[in-house]
Each structure stands twice: as C-alpha cells, then as structure tokens.
Amino acid sequence: MGVLSEVCKKSEIEALRSRITDHKSDIILHICDVARENINDIYGQLRKWEEVQSSRHDELLQAHTKLDRRLQLLTRSPNLAVQDLDGVCGALSDLSLNTRQYAKEGAILKSLSYKELPLRHDIIPKAHKVTLNWAFDGYADVSPETSERSNAFGNLSRWLSGPNGLFWISGKPGSGKSTLMKFVADNERTKHLLGKWSGDQPLIITAYYFTIYGTPIQRSLEGLLRSLLYKILQ
Questions:
Q1: I need a surface site. Which of 53, 145, 189, 203 has the fewest CB within 10 A?
Q2: 189-to-71, 156, 195, 200 alpha-carbon distances in Å
C-alpha cells in the first residue's frame, strides 16, 4: 500500500507540474501579447513624430525594429521561459521611456518649425571651393582703399579660433554675402577652427539668412530665433 500510495503521489505531482507548465506558458504568451501591443503603440508614437527629422528618431526606430524581431523569435521558441522575457521587458521599458521623452522633444521642435524653415540655406548656390578659399587664407582682395578692409578676411580665421563676439561682413545686394556665409558654415575648416576654443564641449554650427524677398516670418526676428533654436535642439 505504501508503494502504491507513493506512485499515486508521484502521478499527482507530475500532473500538477504539467498543469503549472501549461499555465506558465499561457502567462508568458499573454505577456508577449501585451509586449507586442506596447511595441505597436510605441511605433505609432514614432510615426507621429517622423516629420521631425532627427538622428534620435532614427535610433528609436532601429531599437523598435530590433525589439520587435526579438519578441517574434521568443514567441516561436518551443522552450520559452520566463528568463527569456527579462531582457525583452527591460528593453521595452527603456524604449517606452525614451519614446515618451522623444515625444516631448518632438512637440518642442514642432512648435519651433515652420514651412519655409529649411529652404533658404538649400537654395543658396554653392561656391566653387577654390573661389572662396581666400576667406580662410589670411588675405583678401576686397578693396584696396583701406588696409583694414583688405585684411578683413585675414581676421576671420582668428575670429573663429577664439570666443569673440560678432564678425561683421557688409556688401551690396547681390554681392555674394549669403554664398560666402554658406561656404563658411559648411566648410570643414570652420569646424576645425571653432574646435580650438570649444574644446571638449559639443560644437553646433547653424546659420540663418534674412532675405528681402522672403516670407514675413523669414524676414522677422521670430523666424531667426525659431530657426536657430530648431537646428540647435535638433
């Protein structure tokens, strides 16, 4: 009787263990379903802010895709265990938190953006690299009338290398001021010279161009501030 009783207990234990395993699998699959819903919600939030183009948006999309694939592999695994979900849940929590933070950042960027914001810099013609090299070379044949003006661009490199105030360039309409500024803003030597005083601090270069032919906001101080803030924060 003792042996028979022990066999019965083992049978009951095995049956109970099987039921627990089945319930555990159901719970894990339910967790996976919830995780999938959260991942889909996150994707919807990211799509909402895709018009605010930034490297952070791309990073979050890549993290979302990677996590989604990881979850798909787990749900197909025949030996799915609770431990397998630990990493996924942790990554999902981080992604959700980062997405909420990004949504706040996106709302700020969207409030600063306006339709004509990126157009001005893009439509300014590019100068030939050799044509405007004199801007960095320490000399310029700007005007022989005064030594101060003829050495104007000789001081540009020194100005970029130090934490000084404004560098004022004037000229008649159509003389190429915007083309020159685009050349300087996009030139690698500008980054190198600015790096001498920025040191280990992040270096951000942005530009804004007033134009008499632009829209009211492009000609306004508001347009200047919104554009600079947008590009810096982006």
A1: 145
A2: 47, 11, 10, 17
What's the distance, CA 32 to chain centroid? Answer: 30
Predicted TM-score of the model (pTM): 0.62
Q: What string of H, E and C letters represents the secondary structure of 160-226? A: HHCCCCCCCCCCCCCCCHHHHHHHHHHCHHHHHHHHHHHCCCCCCCCCCCCCCCCCCCCCCHHHHHH
Q: Tell me the average pLDDT of the chain.
A: 73
Residues 6 or more apart from 149 whose CB is under 8 A from it? 142, 143
User: Would you state the torsion angle of the CA atoms of residues 152, 155, 159, 162, taken in this order, to the nearest 10 degrees?
Assistant: -160
Q: Which residues contact 109 (CB under 8 A, 6 or more apart)?
A: 52, 54, 230, 233, 234
Report how far residue 218's alpha carbon sits from residue 60's, in angstroms, rounded to the nearest whole number. Answer: 32
Which residues have CB under 8 Å from 185's CB, separation 6+?
121, 205, 206, 207
CA–CA gap between residue 211 and residue 215 (Å, rounded): 9
**188-198 and 177-186 are packed helices; what angle lies between their axes, rounded to 10 degrees?**
60
- Tell me the pLDDT band of 171, cut-offs 50, 70 and 90: confident
Radius of gyration of the chain (CA): 31
pLDDT digits 0-9 by tens, 49-103: 666 656 677 777 788 788 788 777 777 765 655 566 677 777 777 877 787 888 8
Helix (H), strand (E) at residue 112:
helix 82-112
Q: Is the pLDDT of residue 151 over 70?
A: no
Dig out the tokens for 10 from the structure: 């083992």
